[in-house]
Design a protein that fits this description.
This protein is 85% helix and 0% strand. The protein has 65 residues and is mainly alpha-helical. The chain has one domain. Its main location: membrane.
Length: 65
């Protein structure tokens, strides 16, 4: 998982408990959003969190040229 690798500073082989923690945390957040606001809330949060990352990614791509 990317979150797990980022949390360890780039180490690829992370402890199992840490992978379970991040997977559980993401699952709990998704379930909470589905229960609180349904699919539209989950979609809104997905777009809202992906948009800033997309802008940073585009700037990084521009920097390669």
């Amino acid at each position: 998982m990317v979150v797990d690798t980022l949390a360890t500073g780039g180490v690829a082989n992370t402890p199992v408990w840490q992978r379970i923690f991040w997977a559980s945390l993401m699952g709990i957040v998704a379930i909470a959003l589905l229960l609180a606001g349904g699919l539209s809330a989950l979609q809104t949060v997905t777009i809202a969190s992906a948009l800033p990352f997309s802008v940073i990614l585009l700037i990084s791509i521009y920097g390669l040229f």
